[in-house]
Amino acid sequence: MVKFMAPESQDDFPQDMQSWIDSMEFTQLRRGDIVEGSVMRVDPDGIFVDVGQKIEGYVPSNEMRSMPQDEFKALKEGDSLITFVVKPESEEGPLLSIDKARGEEGWRELQRFQEEDKAIEGTIIGFNRGGCILDVANVQGFVPMSQLLTISRDVFQLESEDGSTDARQQQKNLVGTSLTVKVLEVNRARNRAIFSERSALQKQRDEQKAELIQVIQEGDVRQGVVTGISNFGAFVDLGGADGLIHISEMSWSMVQSPADVVKVGEKIDVYILKVDKEALKIALSLRRLSPKPWETIDERYSVGDVVSAIVTKLANFGAFAKLEDTIEGLIHLTELSISPIEHPNEIIKEGDQIQVKILKIEPDRKRLGLSLIQADTPDVIVDPDSIDLDAQYENVDNEIGFDYTQSSDEKTEHIVDKDDSDNNSSENVDVDN
User: Fold this and answer.
1) Does domain 2-100 have CATH number 2.40.50.140?
2) What pLDDT band is residue 18 in, cutting at 50, 70 and 90?
3) Could you give the C-alpha distances from 175 to 17, 67, 261, in angstroms and in order?
4) Which of 10, 109, 166, 229 is the 20 to 30 Å CA partner of 40?
5) 417 phi, psi to nearest 5 deg
6) Does residue 100 contact residue 86 with C-beta atoms inside 8 Å?
7) Do domains 2-100 and 296-400 have the same CATH topology?
8) What are the residues facing 332 on neighbouring strands?
């Protein structure tokens, strides 16, 4: 573009043509320039723009894809338009781009946000193995996995046969959603922009968590949203603070994977199990919202019932058999065979599925008396008062070495902070039951 600087008065007018030419300032359009012009006319295939000095530039349709259709239709003659010079000279005049201009404006905006240490919002447009790709101010940048707070690491587990399908679906669901981030690095020359959600949200979430931890109480029931799933549990946002449901607190039954119980984005009620106000950590439970299986065992089983069970352990005095994940009983040696035997392995082995008859139920002491031989006589009435479980169980502690009346899952609770999980670390906090 040529910019002409007119003389201020007649007296200043040059005496010869060469001096007059020397007084003119030449500013040529160059590739990469950002120029502001006015719309001359709008065609279906492009926009003609006056970029000054009666120079008419042209923006083809493939260089204005970032312009929404309603904005394009609203353009009229005289409207201001900022464009990027793609090619200073062509048959139709300078070739211009709205897309690249907006991208350049975006780079400048990112630079400003970085300098001012301000948060900016972007849109997720994709994922790769190390993080997510974000569109911020028409600039594509990258958020490393370690800099994400609201997206679980499980979203990136594509190599696992069990988790790949679910992870791909989670990624698909997240594309198009927004993230609030801070700019960590801007390098226009290398076309590189790095963002951090952690930096943008950490201070805010820490303040919210500190406030929430002061008001919630152990034993409360609160509603939250599942924000992430890991192999050891699920994180739930309680309204500014994330708590952890450890996999052992998902259900009274055995849980293979937390993803079998909850899904990211699901609203659930949780029991506040433990609050560590110093470490700002919250342990949650799902299973505490329902009665313990032993508390309701009389609703499912009765003395004299013949039921299916799985042999879990053999000992000199008998065998243990599991009716449910947490309901286990003892088949005394005398109830395994009519003929005398020295060890249960003469009759059964661990893992066998067998039919047993329930002889006695003691819910308070978490004990069941079972019989293998009496399972063949289901119609014979059992007198539970004739069954001495104290005598049958007297060798349990000595030979196996544990307190059968206290299940191991009642001894320890788990508190893991979501930030700690990002660093593959966890913390166990003992609580009294």
Assistant:
1) yes
2) low
3) 63, 20, 24
4) 109
5) -80, 145
6) yes
7) yes
8) 318
